[in-house]
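Please fill in the sequence for the structure shown.

STRUCTURE ENCODING:
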């Protein structure tokens, strides 16, 4: 009877260790996935910001050229 009990306890201990290892692995996967998602969103937002700055600066440059041209035309006239 004690041999059966020892085998059962050994099996239970092994399964508990496997379960704990799988839970740690799952937690690590979730943390890594969160980090990757945050990194993706930061990179994407940075790209969007850069494109918006390019558009705004291009618009400001064009607006400045138009004002400069209007002033130049007024002096000529």
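FILLED IN BY: designer on duty
SEQUENCE:
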């Amino acid at each position: 009877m004690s041999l059966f009990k020892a085998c059962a306890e050994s099996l239970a201990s092994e399964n508990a260790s496997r379960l704990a290892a799988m839970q740690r692995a799952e937690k690590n996967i979730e943390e890594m996935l969160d980090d990757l998602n945050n990194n993706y969103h930061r990179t994407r937002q940075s790209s969007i910001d850069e494109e918006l700055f390019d558009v705004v600066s291009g618009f400001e440059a064009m607006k400045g050229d138009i004002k400069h041209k209007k002033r130049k035309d007024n002096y000529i006239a």
